[in-house]
Amino acid sequence: MRKGIHKAEFILVVMAAAAFCGCGKSDTKTLAGADNIEATEVAVNSETDSTGTPSASSEQNASADSTTQKDKNTESETFEDSIKEQIEMEIKKNTPEITIDYAEKTEYPELAEFLISYFEIPEEYLAESRYYYNYVDLNEDGTEEILALVVGEYTTASGGDTILLIEKEAERFSVADAFYMVRTPVVISDNMTNGWHDLIFPVYGGGNDIGYSICHYSETGTYMSENNEFVEELDETISGHQILSNNLIDDMDKGAYLSLAPEVE
Q: Which residues in the chain belong to E strands, given as ranges?
């Protein structure tokens, strides 16, 4: 049993990713000097009437901004959906020896509780947070591990989501490895490195080139990023098993997913 990744490391990685993606930038008002703040207040006040009620123009601007943001979100989802479909088609076309499987459909309350605790997800985010999982045996020792994916506003970054490699022993879960800002589906290659199957993740979004990341197991006992190999296309000779193959956007629209929110009795 290897030592799991600490939450502090996860937080540092997410903070670094947020800073890289520009998500950590401060609001303009907090960086402005006193003169600029005063000017800002004048501009804000000009959008209210004498009673302090927002004017019709300010309400229209707010409505327009909201509509624009919704349009941007829709465009982003459409782009990601099209890229995902393109990648799935390429995998099927270029690697006919890869079999396809979807995430388990059975609720796993104990796993859900572990994921909530690991990511420290606040209660108000649970209802819209989804989880997917598949059983795997990456080192072929006869004991299954779990590859679990969490999708939601609290855990998702612009470059993707986090997938955990989880081991279970004596009814207790532990994180053996973690893959940050990755995409699905995941291909478990028949090729093995240091006794563990290679893992292949699609790469796109977050400023990354479109392609695939092939993760090789290291001698130190993890799928370390130093051993990753980026390729634009998968070799047709690659064989293996594809998991977590669900269309995440489709699932969201149809409500066909497992929620981290506890069931109300």
A: 98-100, 130-136, 145-151, 161-169, 172-182, 186-193, 196-205, 208-215, 229-231, 240-243, 258-259
pLDDT tens digits for range 140-194: 999 999 999 999 999 988 888 999 999 999 889 999 999 988 899 999 999 999 9
The owner of tokens 């998968």 is: 234
Q: Model's pTM, two decimal places?
A: 0.67
Q: Which two tokens stand for residue 129?
A: 């947070």
pLDDT digits (tens, 9 = 90+) for 246-262: 998 889 899 899 999 97
- Spatial contact of 159 and 210, defined as CB atoms under 8 Å apart: no
Q: For residue 202, what are the contacts with CB-CB under 8 A and spacing of at least 6? A: 84, 87, 183, 184, 185, 211, 212
CA distance 182 to 90: 18
